[in-house]
Amino acid sequence: MTLSDIVAGLEVTAEQCDRGVAVVDDTDGDLRERLVPFADDLPCDPTSAATVVESFTAGASVGDAGRDAGVAPVTAAKTLHLLGLDGVSPLGPTARDVVGDWLTADLSRSDAKALTGASETEFALAAFVETHDPLDGAVKAVEGALSPAGDATVRKRDELGETMSDVGDLL
Hints:
about 55% helix, elongated
């Protein structure tokens, strides 16, 4: 097969069709509006909760996100936990197990506190995290906001996966 056989029948055009930019956005309304149904269960109002989430996902610490929203850092941590963000407990896995032992009455509070080495505030926040599950539906309400940019990129790549080639296509 020669080159002329390969290109036979190919046609060159002078213009391309502009298809626009593909956008994937499965959220409705702004974050504050999506948090209104959970207002009674959150430790702060929906506007403050939205500010905490937005500041935190923009890279602020939990304390800074709370200050941006005008709430205490502990309130910000509780809000983030109730909205489904993992990792806001101030204690590591072993210390969380100790708090769990205290909650099941296998240890006294003073022993558990001594074993964790946590301050009063840290211990109280860890107990809150261990005794409260994220709010039903709240995780879905803030899903887009809680995803760091890398996760959003992965999600977009998954949505548009059929339109993209990978290294295997080049071989």
